[in-house]
Amino acid sequence: MIHISKRVDFEIFRGKAAWLNRYVGWAVRLIAVLLSLIVSGILIYSITKMNPVRVYATMVKGAFGSTRKIWAWLRDLVLLLLIAVGLAPAFKMRFWNIGAEGQVLAGGIATAACMIYLGSANIPTPLFLILMAAASMLAGAVWGVIPAIFKAKWNTNETLFTLMMNYIAIQLTSFFIPRWEHPKGSNTVGIINAGTQAGWFPKIAGSQYLLNVIIVAVITVAMYFYLCRSKHGYEIAVVGQSENTARYAAMNVKKVIVRTMTLSGAICGLGGFLAVAGADHTISTTTAGGRGFIAIIVAWLAKFNTLTMILISALLVFLQKGAVAIASEFSLSNDVSDIITGIILFFILGSEFFINYKIGFSKSSGKEA
Amino acid sequence: MNQTLAQIISLITTAVSFGTVIMYGSLGEILTEKSGQLNLGVPGIMYLGGIGGLIGAFLYETHTAAPVPGVGLIIALACTVAASVLGGLIYAFLTISLRANQNVTGLTLTIFGSGVANFFGGSLSKLAGGVGQISVASTSSAFRATQHLTDKLGWFDSIFLSYGFMVYLALIIAVVMSIFVNRTRRGLNLRAVGENPATSDAAGINVTLYKYLATCVGAAVSGLGGLYYVMDYIKGTWANDGNIEAVGWLAVALVIFATWKPLRSIWGAYLFGALYWLYNFIPGLSRSSQELFKMLPYIVTILVLITVSLRRKKEDQPPSSLGLSYFREDR
């Protein structure tokens, strides 16, 4: 008979067993990632009949083949990471913020609006960047805090509320596209300020995306300390574990919920700033491009540890870039990257079971007691 | 006057045919959620169902010299059910057996499903050695065949009889599901599992079995929505425009709008369909303001969400254990 029991929670229990469990945990995750790579390899082989070894070689070349590709990898990595970092406080509080997609778009709209309306005002670049960052954070915060207020006051289901807010943001983007479209009749916004490059991230040390990396690195480290070492972070953890305990400890639960979601929304909004001013220089309904959803899974799998999120984002973005490289070599559809993302996430999600539970085999083959 | 009438009839038929896609999605999700499983993979399952049926019909039509529409229809239905149940099984295995988080697993399923569907939708004809868009005209015609009794019924005919059979199938499923959930012993067990799995377990109900079955049957029903969209609504082709995903989320929204009652999701679905396409019937809208009108279904859902949480009526609440995994030895 198979018997399943819970492993000792290594968050609480510190000692020799905790260290052992942590190693087991990472070993299990590593096996899961390897298995998912094998399954994806088999899948790609069955579609393309490409030698599996060449599959991975093409993927590595597609992601890291040139300096430009490495920078593109970094650019996408930090954007995904930033959104995941923004979601971390909300999820640690067990507030299901499924609305990152919308919060990113809201921030993107605010950034694009600044670029379009203030682009010819000759504001010095640093000041302009700060202005756009503030605008995008404000927009994202508003998008995030509306469901939080209803959750705090009337316990309105936040999962579905934030989900609906995504679509309102998407429609809002579609609303602005005809107003900002360039050239007329294209139904796209086109590259904003293509001539003047007003509001674009400046090159630092010759690299176009270095500023993106710096911004996200700072926020990631800051969020790590905010969650693990600050009073706010502690409050978030307590509210997440048990609202009643938090209330008993005289914490203002409503205030914590609203404050945390303002922060979460603001950082996701900043993701929109990075996407529009720092990468695409345009806005469309796919500016967030599903990252809001993938970031949820990144944040969850990393157990809200922002440093672990770096690893997971790096892996996922690598796989996506690699899959796109394979798809383009065989002129197949790019969506193969979503399939591979799905497979690897399924495996990691499934592996959590073997980390959280111990499976024992007892010799008696009779009925369960 | 006549023109207004024609407009109203046109709005109703648009609402019914679009609403049916949403209805399938939400009916499946209602059944799944009754067992306490919050499956956010509905859009992914609808994608899988849609592409499954399309691939089945496509392979049949390309390998047969003279495809019979009725055979294509059966093959498409079978492939849809198989593909969506497979999606449901992945979700069920991860969340029920491996106790993974339901929200995260559901979202992953949506990413996976949309990837699979858009990949094959975009590459299928190339993989099969052909060129251009996939088209399954023959099978699609079977899905779109209408049952006109006579041609003397005028508006009655347009409103009630101008749809393919899947529109009526959705109504039948809604009624059957409502009877099953509310009037049968097994339906009671299912609701008990969703409300309190530990108590149900103690009462001798096989919690795992109920959860698995509800998730997989629910997935099959949701998947039919994808099939209806592909075969009937867009006439047997594939469009990589993210519409199924948008409709899938609307279906999740409709579950709340219908407060977990299958019958209520019938008129809810038609209402959503009408709200979604309302902008087409309001004269003088600019391209921008059309987009604002498309927000309506989402705003209405938010309003319902808020109202439900404000009124706290007992019969309108979600199943108590919704979203939580059950482990017998947990305390």
What Rg of chain B do the Cα atoms give? Answer: 20 Å
Report mean pLDDT of chain A, rounded to a whole number: 87
* Biggest beta sheet attributes of chain B: none
What CATH calls the topology of the largest domain in chain A is: ABC transporter involved in vitamin B12 uptake, BtuC
- Net shape of chain B: globular
Structural class of chain A: mainly alpha
Q: For the record, what CATH class of the largest domain in chain A applies?
A: Mainly Alpha
Strand order of the largest sheet of chain A: 1-2
Residues in helix, % of chain B: over 70%
* Number of self-contained structural domains of chain A: 2
Largest sheet of chain A: 2 strands, antiparallel
So how many helices of chain B?
14
Question: How many strands appear in the DSSP assignment of chain A?
Answer: 2
Helix-strand blueprint:
The complex is a heterodimer of chains A (369) and B (331).
Chain A: E1 2-6, H1 16-48, H2 52-64, H3 67-92, H4 100-118, H5 125-154, H6 158-180, H7 210-229, H8 231-241, H9 243-248, H10 253-280, H11 291-301, H12 306-329, H13 336-356, E2 357-361
Antiparallel strand pairs in A: 1-2
Chain B: H1 2-34, H2 42-63, H3 69-97, H4 102-127, H5 137-144, H6 155-160, H7 165-183, H8 185-195, H9 197-202, H10 207-233, H11 243-257, H12 264-277, H13 287-293, H14 296-311
Task: Walk me through this protein's architecture.
The complex is a heterodimer of chains A (369) and B (331). Chain A has 13 helices and 2 strands. In chain A, strands 1-2 form a two-stranded antiparallel sheet. Chain A has 2 domains: 1-50 and 330-369, no CATH class; 73-319, ABC transporter involved in vitamin B12 uptake, BtuC. Helix content of chain A is 72%, strand content 3%. Mean pLDDT of chain A is 87; it is low at 365-369. Chain A is an all-alpha fold and 369 residues long. The radius of gyration of chain A is 22 Å and the shape is globular. Chain B has 331 residues and is mostly helical. Chain B is globular, with a radius of gyration of 20 Å. The mean pLDDT of chain B is 88. In chain B, helix 1 (2-34) crosses helix 11 (243-257) and helix 3 (69-97) packs antiparallel against helix 4. Helices cover 72% and strands 0% of the residues of chain B. Chain B has helices at residues 2-34, 42-63, 69-97, 102-127, 137-144, 155-160, 165-183, 185-195, 197-202, 207-233, 243-257, 264-277, 287-293, 296-311. The longest helix of chain B has 33 residues, at 2-34. Chain B has one domain: ABC transporter involved in vitamin B12 uptake, BtuC, CATH 1.10.3470. Chain B has 14 helices and no strands. At the A-B interface, strand 1, helix 6, helix 11 and helix 13 of A face helix 3, helix 4, helix 11, helix 13 and helix 14 of B.
